Amino acid sequence: MSLLLDVKGVTKRFGGVVANDAVSLSVREGEIAGLIGPNGSGKTTLFSSIVGAHPIDAGAVLYEGRDISALRIAEIARRGLTRTYQQTRIYGQMPVIDNMRISAPDVKEGILPLFRRAGRASEARARDLLSFVGLYEKRDLLAGSLSFGQQKLLEFAMALMSEPKLLLLDEPTAGINPTLINGLIDRLKRANKELGVTLFVIEHNMRVIMNLADRITCLAHGQVLASGTPDEVREDPRVLDAYLGAQ
Questions:
Q1: What family name appears in the similarity comment (predicted)?
Q2: N or C: which end of the chain has fewer CB within 10 A?
């Protein structure tokens, strides 16, 4: 598989704090890649750097072989690279189906999306994706009335509306009722296989990420600690000491 995302020596500082220190990793087209590490290890900061939410201090982010380090969020999203967040970004006072008509992220803020009415093709896709995530019967309810797990599913469906090539998911199972997690995992795998979306997933639930990802990278103190197959990472003593052993 060809490289879709190639992060080369990315460093990001916030004042005197080095959040990412010469991080290098890659995501291959068609795979599900995982990113793990203790709290404060720089995972979410790295995601923000990749999608253009803040400028990096050193290194480069290559997407489809092109350096996107200096591009804005909306420019990167239009190329097929987008993300979800730890906390859902939905319009709670808007019906579920209307949330599906959200367009690209706002160029200035990178958080609040622009709203536009969908054409017939987009309307059909919105309904298909709501069926895909199991929310079609709730399409006319206010999004804020959904459970937290259902809101996560809605955000996932919203992200798929833009037909991304690469979707970055920041802790997709966090806060979800354990009984719903298996269904979410199944939908992530189906999006990868059936819709052709490459996934890069931050996840603290080790059972989830070990059963979901083809390859996993572990960060600690802003640096890459280990990378490999789930079995290789699970058995790496450095990972056990830095992360898994601390659970």
A1: Belongs to the ABC transporter superfamily.
A2: C
In the chain, what are the helix, strand and coil shares in percent, each to the nearest 5?
A: 35, 30, 35
The CATH code that applies to domain 3-246 is 3.40.50.300
Residues 78-91 have pLDDT tens digits of 899 999 887 788 88
* Each residue's pLDDT tens digit, 191-209: 999 999 999 999 988 889 9
Q: How far apart are CA 89 and CA 71, in angstroms?
A: 22
Distance CA 170, CA 167 (A): 10
Mean pLDDT within 29-58: 94
Sign of CA dihedral 219, 223, 229, 232: negative
* Two tokens, residue 230: 């789930």
Domain regions of the chain by residue span = 3-246
Residue type present at position 85 = Y
* Cβ-based neighbour number of residue 13 at 10 Å: 14
Written as six digits, the tokens of 120 are 């017939």
